[in-house]
Design goal:
23% strand, disordered N terminus, 5-stranded antiparallel sheet, Enolase-like, domain 1, alpha/beta, FAD/NAD(P)-binding domain, single chain, 3 domains
Amino acid sequence: MRNGTQTQGAAVNDTSRTYDVVVIGAGPVGENVADRTSAAGLSTVIVEGELIGGECSFWACEPSKALLRPVLARADARRVPGLKKAVAGPLDVPAVLAHRDDMVNHWQDEDQVEWLNSVSVDLVRGHGRLDGPRQVVVTTPDGGTVRLGARHVVAVCTGTGAALPDLPRLDEVRPWTSREATSADAVPGRLVVVGGGVVAVEMATAWRALGAEVTMLVRGGGLLSRMEPFAGELVAEGLREAGADVRFGTAVASVAREDGPDGEVRITLADGGQLAADEILFATGRQPRTGDIGLETIGLTPGDWLKVDDTFRVSAVEDGWLYAVGDVNHRALMTHQGKYQARIAGAVIGARVNGRPVDESRWGTHVATADSEAVPQVVFTDPEVAAVGLSAREAERSGRRVKVVDNDFGSVAGAIQYAEGYRGKARMVVDLDRGTLVGVTFVGPGVGELLYSATIAVVSEVPVERLWHAVPAFPTISEVWLRLMEAYRG
């Protein structure tokens, strides 16, 4: 590398090395930070104790969508006249699981390592921990130690892990988290899903369609509580129609696995009721992977989220040498948003180290404005949910004067062509004082592909009156934009 002695992209085994930038965590976020700092001419090393490519590539986005794609394609086909009989049978479970395995390269990361080599980023495999300012000590798989010094920056990109509830002897039950749910090699006969967020509804959708009897236990009164209420309502309807048992206002008091490691799981509910299952998935939130990365050596609390400014410098660390990018900073826990942050962080690190100006203006090159104002998300359920920006509730709480405009997809010709009996709803939230959109939500089959247009409208602050002149093609689902504009004008 550019320090003159490293082999480009090779795994490093030397006991002590110095780089311009040390990145801890080689998921998509860490990879993007490293790519951008290397492209800026900074010698960069990345540290990873698991697979290069991280959670998204091997246990989250890629495998979950591989499981869900045939589920949703079949659901769509069953709504098209002439196709219903052709797709009347069950899914080919071995083929679905084999496709999932192919999509994650059978949990091998050689391609990712090859990519690191191509962008001149060195790799040290092992568990990295901070050891004072600008110092990282890595315990390698063979028990050795590598000390990495950073001339300028250490970037923490360690992401999050599943947050499990505090239940007695839960570890003995061997519960599923998102990792087990996306990598299981067989369909459980009975699956209990605890939680009502994105992971819970997506995995309930997938495993129900693959043949499991699914029961969802949701502490609150609805699904997808951070989104518009109608989104969770329509997803709950879809799950129930698919045969899932969705229960609200329900909490788990205790769990136990009877008759050995392969025995059934006995679940006692807070109201005294009981359930039995073959597996139980806890999809009850995420927590930062900061518990064992040496935060105490620089005066921070292990296990905490790392609070950052809009350029991803950790606010509590003097001299600005520590950055935290992606889920670990708790700004927006989604892969695409983490990669957005990484592109910004890599660029701003390169600018600062190389003495170039930093653009910290709103929507500037070196700030993550979209983290608070235009975060897009798709939930791959039946029906799909796609949303960007603020919900109506969030917009009102922020003090904005807003107008909420709703439209049922039943009035959209493209939706009727897409599927017989198409059910769905669209909402846009308009800031009346500025005349721009601050939030958009779509629910219905195939709406994920509408999201980028909505994201552009929110990010670009396009006046709603100008959107009247953005003509959607007929007959496509995007015609819902015209229906929303008509409703807005009254």
